[in-house]
Amino acid sequence: MNEVRRNEDATYSSARPMINFSTFKPVCRKAGFLPSIPPYLCAMFRRTLEIVSNSFKMALQELWKNKLRTFLSLFGVTIGIFCIIGVLATVNSLQRNIQNEIAAMGNNTIYIDKWVWAGGPDYPWWKYVNRPVAKFQEVKEVKDRSHNAANVALFIKAQDNVEFGGSVLNNTAIYGVTEEYFNIQKLEMAYGRQISDAEFSYGTNIAVIGDEIATKLFSEAELALNKEIQVKGRKIIVGGIIKKQGKQMTGGWDFDKSVILPFQFARTIYNELKTDPVIIVKGKEGVPIPALTDELEGIMRGIRKISPTDESNFALNNMDDISGQVSEAFVGLNIGGAVIGGISLIVGLFGVANIMFVTVRERTPQIGLKKAVGAKSRIILTEFLLEAAFLCIIGGLIGLLLVVALSIILTKALEFPVYVSVGNMAWTFLICILVGIIAGIIPAIQAAKMDPVVAIRSK
Prior knowledge:
By secondary structure, the chain is α+β, with helices and mostly antiparallel strands. It folds into two domains: 2-28 and 35-97 and 327-457, no CATH class; 132-313, no CATH class. The chain has helices at 2-14, 24-31, 39-65, 67-104, 125-128, 136-145, 181-184, 197-202, 211-218, 263-269, 289-303, 319-362, 364-372, 377-414, 422-448, 452-457; strands spanning 109-113, 149-164, 167-177, 189-192, 206-209, 228-231, 234-242, 258-262, 278-283, 315-318. Strands 1, 2, 3, 4, 5, 6, 7, 8, 9 and 10 form a ten-stranded mixed sheet that branches. α6 packs across α11 and α14 packs antiparallel against α15. The longest helix has 44 residues, at 319-362. It is elongated, with a radius of gyration of 34 Å.
């Protein structure tokens, strides 16, 4: 009987973590971490640490002892996490990039246009096609009448060829802007300078060009500075090169492939009424978009002398509304990605459950010994649930590492930044813990309900 007792004590003590808890409490209290913790709470905390460390050690032992079996079972969890987090990371990165591009078009900014910036099969284009376009003289009137506007600018655009020394770039974006445009769009110059107020006023033949335009025409962007390019036979001096912006999902301004001219010069090349002119209004700091919108509605109706009973012949396009529409569109994509990954994760759940059933059978004598020396059923239940959760976390971490590696590869290969957010990492751990609990609950209940005598005698 004494021999059996020694064996039981050895078995139970071997499962305990090698932590000296006798020195833990005095040291913490001396350092000021445990000023007045009751003894029963210290005992509970110590016991919790023992259970967690024991479960973690058992999970590692299971992984090391049966490498192939555990790997094949956890592979489903790995693939499931890879699918869920991979899809979420890709969709979130796509949404974030599009939102950043929309934000780059101007925060707290209203675009006065004849077109409503919306789409869909029911878009009433015939309702807007005959509306008048924005005009240069309206810019000054809006500026003078508005109390909420910080900057007002006119923007026109065209597609044309840009030439230098026999080299031609087809279908280049040509923008004509007024002086306050650069206060709305904060563009950083890689080389040279922006267009000055005097050059705007006099309509000087000067331009700032995108990095891609400069590189294609002059091999190196820096060499384009102070050179003369031609648009429709008109000579234009390159005064500055815009810092490289990178690829854009929505197109946006696409400054890398653009040539920006003073409006007074651009209107000598193009008919401004045929270049989709837009008035851009940026609100003052602290002015909400609804207040700015309401004010501009009244100002434009007054400028165009629209009767109170008539409908407005202009549109006030708010970038915040467009950003909200984009967010709504991505909700479905996130749900679809989660469903796809969830199907893969179910396979991993059954794999982990299979491991836990086998583990309970293999450890039946050990479970009996633990219960014989006083281990309660809830302790056995908790240990097996934690072990299943730890196994899933290991598989999930492998899947997360694969997603991170893939995101780095895609970012470098496609020049498209893919982000694995902290939120996605947190989701990984929560999903793994939930899957582990679901997979291990039935085996853990079986282990907790075992009769110690029957369990000890089993082989």
